[in-house]
Amino acid sequence: MKIPSTVRFPLAVSIIFLSACAAALTLYDAVSLLSPYGWWHAMTATDLSDPHELLARYAFAPRVAVSILAGASLGLAGLLLSHSLSNPLAEPTTLGTSAGAGLALTASTLYAPSLLAMGGRGMVALAGAAAATGLTFAIGWRRRGSPVSLVLSGLVVTMVSGSAAAGLIALDSDNLSAIFVWQSGSLVQSGDRAAQTLLVCLLVAFSVCRLLARPLTILGFEDALARSLGQSPGRIRFVAILTGVVLAANVVSFVGVIAFIGLAAPVFSRILGARSFHRQLVAAPALGALMLWLIDRVVFHLESGSDIPTGAAAALVGAPVLLFALASLRYGGTLRAKPAAPVGLALKVRWPALVAFITLITIASFTFGRGPGGWEWLAWDMWQEMAPYRLPRIAVSFGAGILLAVAGAMLQTSSGNPMASPEFLGASGGAALGVLVLMLVVPYELQNAMVNVAAALGSLAALTLLLGIMLRRDMIPERVLLTGWLIAIFASSVASLVLAGGDTRVQWLQLWLTGSTYRASATDAIITLSAALLSLAALPFIARWLVILPLGRSVATSAGVPVTRAYALILTIAAGATAVATVVIGPLSFIGLMAPHFARLIGFRRPMLQIYAAAFIGASILVISDWIGRTVIYPWQVPAGLVAALVGAPAFIWLMRRPT
Question: Please, how many CA atoms are within 13 Å of residue 179, restricted to the half-sphere of its CB?
Fold first, then answer.
């Protein structure tokens, strides 16, 4: 990654500055807790009857040590992954490593706590991290390891792992707040075990890197050159990736997911002058340690009685860093597809068959289900009694499915990007961010109208940002997708802060984030269906634009299309549709991605027919997801958004593994 000369600052000055800031805050906090003599006594002969000495010895000091060691571990892990893959975006968070470890630990904590005993916590985290990283490589390497394709695959694995973890938590909501705090990266400690283990693992990993410093340096060149020098690039790359995965899993096992430190530390080490791998091997862990140490000290001052996850705060800082890396990254491929190219299977499904399928699905979701007596059809005389409970949920799911599918189909068609969708272009994340900001500003119970307006503004702001990016000539689809993901990750970080902050509305927020239709009302149904009808009615007015825009800006301009205005109107419609859908089912789902592809697969190739078909397919998917969530583990329920996300994951993985 080429760094402009205007931003090359001395590495030593930056390290000294960060060290001074972190040390000053730490010294201030330490002196506020105990006198210098009290600290000496607390560390050498702790008085167990003195709460201040106990707090200093077993909470404050271990937290500082863990922040330094965890930051150094993540910095080293990020360096190994980015260097071995020649990909400046590769780090434990973007490759799914941390999310896989977090999912494994969440599942074990909730349903198999015995696996965590006797030192098994690290092994569980390592197994999850290795599985998730392996899946990322299996998906992304199909495109010859294109840097952005690999990271995009990792972000998908991260989202799927997060959805699965949220689903497990939804089934067992005991200690909900504590789990959310840990998942978001909390450095709160109650002893030395974490610091000791992190130190041993870091020393071993650093020793391995020092022994392999020359082969790892050669790994930065072409594989053919490395082989000519007597090295085995495959083996060296495997050792480097394995070391990075072990470091990341070890950090997650003790403090949860800390986002983007592994990305920021190597990037900053290069920006600040560490050009050779030998220098980066020292600079990246040092910068990672100092950044996390400083962020944790700032978080400690801002907590004010509530436990703010340091990992979430690090994500808020790390998002701009990833944007900077995106601006400097050279891409090795593209996901742009020719608009008229045939896609996949040669299926031909007629409108009557599609309408009949949707009708049967809707009727079955209302009349067939699971009750105290097992699986049963709803008796005729019970229809009127059950209608107020089931019909609003079905109607909301139907309308939200149409809205998300229309938004996704419009975005894919207008951009010529088969991976465009509200989930990957930040529309859902923007809507969620709007609602979260509203929660932070408004202390009392939120009204539906307020939530709708906040979600619409957030979604529109996110897509407006994407509009500016899409109109840049040098901006290809993968970079647009990753920028959208940044918005979603930023929203997730804010959600973590709210969930961990003790807000009395946390239960509502948790249900909303996972896409629950449990509280759907007749008013919600009317609003959602009305918005769905309006979005469908608007399509004929922009039909010509949707056909011409995928051909490119120059072609569209020569055909008389006002490109900027056309994109603005399309994104406004997509933002409004996404906002309404996100309000009722939350930001988790793959409907906007899946439905347009399924429409093409069953024979609807022309843009307008494809969008209308995608709308009804999206409605069917979400109605089915709501029915599955309502019946699969009766009497408990799984949110429809989670079910849709988990069902959509295999579909996306299949799409990513396709050669075109």
Answer: 21
Of the candidates 163, 95, 168, the residue with the CA atom closest to the CA atom of residue 132: 95
Secondary structure letter of residue 86 according to DSSP:
T
Number of neighbours of residue 40 by Cβ within 10 angstroms: 11
Fold agreement between 61-327 and 351-367+388-657: yes
pLDDT in tens, 339-362: 444 444 444 557 777 788 888 888
Q: Which residue has the tokens 């990007």?
A: 417
Residue 41 tokens, joined: 């006594």
Question: Nearest Cα to 257, choosing from 80, 106, 124?
Answer: 106
User: Class for domain 61-327, per CATH?
Assistant: mainly alpha
Alpha helices in 501-521 (DSSP H): 506-513
Residue with tokens 């009708």: 359
Identify the H or E element spanning 374.
Answer: strand 374-377
C-beta separation of 420 from 556 below 8 A: no
Give the CATH superfamily of 351-367+388-657.
ABC transporter involved in vitamin B12 uptake, BtuC (1.10.3470.10)
| 268-300 residue pLDDT tens | 888 777 878 888 899 999 999 999 999 888 888
Check if the beta carbon of residue 417 is closer than 8 Å to that of residue 618. Answer: no
For the chain, what are the domain ranges? 61-327, 351-367+388-657
Q: Which candidate, 587, 299, 287, places its Cα nearest to that of 434? A: 587
DSSP assignment, residue 60?
Answer: I
Residue with tokens 């068959």: 353
* Cα–Cα dist 95/158, whole Å: 8
